Amino acid sequence: MTRWNSFNHRGDYTENLIDEINQLYERQEMAIVTKVPVPIKVIEIGDGVINKAFFEKKSTVDYIGMCQGFSLCFDVKETNQKYLPLKNIHEHQIVYMNAFQKQGGWAFIICHLKITGDFHLIPMELLNYYWYESTRQSIPLDAMVEKGYPIPMEQGLPNYLSAFNTYISAKK
Q1: Burial class (CB in 10 A: 0-12, 13-18, 19+), 156
Q2: CATH class of the domain at 13-36+58-171
């Protein structure tokens, strides 16, 4: 049984930014992307606050949705390094995202490198290479720049649909 704690919510700042941009995308009818809730079982509540809870089962990814006729799913990660440690990604997430792509969808990770302030879309091809083939324990910044897709900031928010459009155009 995994106990809930704040360590599991390190990426909340970045997820909040993604939540804001998703609301904007929906208002502009560009995409509809929904946060996937983490299935938890509450054990104890006191004064309207959850005091004890545990994860009922493993979650899949952070977001799932549709964009311009494309089905997409992605997870959001942030790091204080100039690389994304693979330990920040769970095997069940890799399995889910690969299965999603086999069904015709698009799967990726949005990585926020807090040290530089940059955001990158990491496609499954790059993620799979580092997960299954490389001996490295992380995805370095230079790989994100060369084989990933930088996400531009617009009005203080990461416009990941711009990078997503570049990604799908490159794959056509």
Answers
A1: exposed
A2: alpha beta
